[in-house]
Amino acid sequence: MFYTNKLKDYYEFENEEEVNDFLSNHAYLMEILYDAPTPIHNVFGNDVKLVLEIAHYIDDGDEELFIIIKSHYDAETAAKLNKELFYKWFVNIEHKANGCLNFDEEPA
Q1: If DSSP codes are grouped into helix, strand and coil, which group holds residue 70?
Q2: Is the full-model pTM beyond 0.85?
C-alpha cells in the first residue's frame, strides 16, 4: 500500500487496495492529492472528512479517482460550496489530472 500509506494523514479510502492500484498507474496525481486538502478545507471548513474512491464507468471501462468530501451541509449550501471549490481550485489543476481525478460532496 505504498501510495495510500503516504495519504493516510489526509484521506480515508473506500477501497484502499483499489485506490493504491489506481495510483500506482497514475502516480502523477500524488502531488495534487497532497495539495488538495488545503483548498478543500478553505472552502468547506475543517469539519469535513475526505475519502478517496474509484468510480468505474461500465460503458467505456474507464476509471476515475474521486475525492469525496463528506460534510454536514444541507444540499443547497453543499452545491454552492462545490461550485466555489471548482472555480477556486479544480479549474486550475484539472489539466494536470488528465481526466483521472474528480471531486464531489456527499452527506456525512
Answers
A1: strand
A2: yes
Condensed to tens digits (0 to 9), the pLDDT of residues 41-68 reads: 999 999 999 999 999 987 887 899 999 9
- Give the integer Cα–Cα distance in Å for 92 and 67: 16
Q: Which residue has cell 505504498?
A: 2
Q: Are 67 and 101 in contact (CB under 8 A)?
A: yes
All cell numbers assigned to 61: 471501462
Task: Name the residue ranges covered by the structural domains of the chain.
Answer: 9-107
Q: Where are the beta strands (DSSP E) in 1-108?
A: 12-13, 49-56, 63-71, 101-107
Whether the Cβ atoms of residue 19 and residue 52 lie closer than 8 Å to each other:
yes
What's the CATH number of domain 9-107, 3.40.50, 3.50.80, 1.20.120, 3.30.300?
3.30.300
- The candidate with the shortest Cα–Cα distance to 31, out of 96, 87, 103, 98, is 96
User: Do residues 47 and 69 make contact, with C-beta atoms less than 8 angstroms apart?
Assistant: no
